[in-house]
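User: Reviewer 2 asked us to show a designed sequence for the structure in our supplementary figure. I'm pasting the structure tokens here. Could you produce the per-position amino acids so we can include them in the response letter?
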């Protein structure tokens, strides 16, 4: 009998008061916190409707993010204070203990990701190894599918895309690259925000929030 392939999605969420400081010319600290939660909702909405996903896990120190997780039927996982890669290792080990065959790590700031993207990533990596999706700069990692969940350690931080590929190569692990402009757009800077607003994706929580706080009008006064 073939083993059941089950996929858990891990979504790490940074401390909200530290998040998105580069958006401070445009959004107040409370607005930035709320914007992070709206982006998390968009990611979880896509995760929830993806055919391939069995369970989502939201990793955070923030109660507000863990509450959003519960609202979307995701498992809240309280992160320890040891840094992102260590926290991911904890979540990955937990997945392995649960008998999960694959773990997909997704950032909480890619509001354009769709369930179709997730199903596409999963179908690329059905057998083993890693599927990796780069950020717009091709420096960062905006999706990382690990089969099994502990197939390589993670290297989030500078140049993580290259480091993940190097690590997989060094271990003889199969690598697939999934390219998607939706997955590539993580919103960190005002320029990213301009790109996102230009797409007018009205079905996202993030776009509606930015319209509500009139971010598009504030942008005009910045220029």
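Assistant: Here is a per-position design you can include in the supplement:
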């Amino acid at each position: 009998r073939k083993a059941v392939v089950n996929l858990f999605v891990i979504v790490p969420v940074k401390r909200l008061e530290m998040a998105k400081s580069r958006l401070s010319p445009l959004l107040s600290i409370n607005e930035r916190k709320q914007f992070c939660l709206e982006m998390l909702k968009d990611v979880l909405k896509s995760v929830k409707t993806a055919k391939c996903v069995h369970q989502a896990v939201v990793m955070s120190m923030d109660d507000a993010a863990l509450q959003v997780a519960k609202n979307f039927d995701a498992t809240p996982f309280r992160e320890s204070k040891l840094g992102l890669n260590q926290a991911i290792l904890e979540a990955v080990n937990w997945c392995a203990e649960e008998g999960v065959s694959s773990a997909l790590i997704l950032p909480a700031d890619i509001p354009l990701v769709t369930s179709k993207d997730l199903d596409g990533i999963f179908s690329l990596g059905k057998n083993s190894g890693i599927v990796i999706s780069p950020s717009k700069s091709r420096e960062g990692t905006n999706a990382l599918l690990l089969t099994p969940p502990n197939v390589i350690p993670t290297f989030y931080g500078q140049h993580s895309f290259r480091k993940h590929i190097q690590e997989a190569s060094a271990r003889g692990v199969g690598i697939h690259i999934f390219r998607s402009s939706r997955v590539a757009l993580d919103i960190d800077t005002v320029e990213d925000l301009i790109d996102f607003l230009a797409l007018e994706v009205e079905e996202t929580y993030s776009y509606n929030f930015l319209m509500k706080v009139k971010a598009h009008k504030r942008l005009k006064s910045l220029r």
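For the response letter, you might also mention the following. DSSP finds nine helices and seven strands in the chain. The mean pLDDT is 93.
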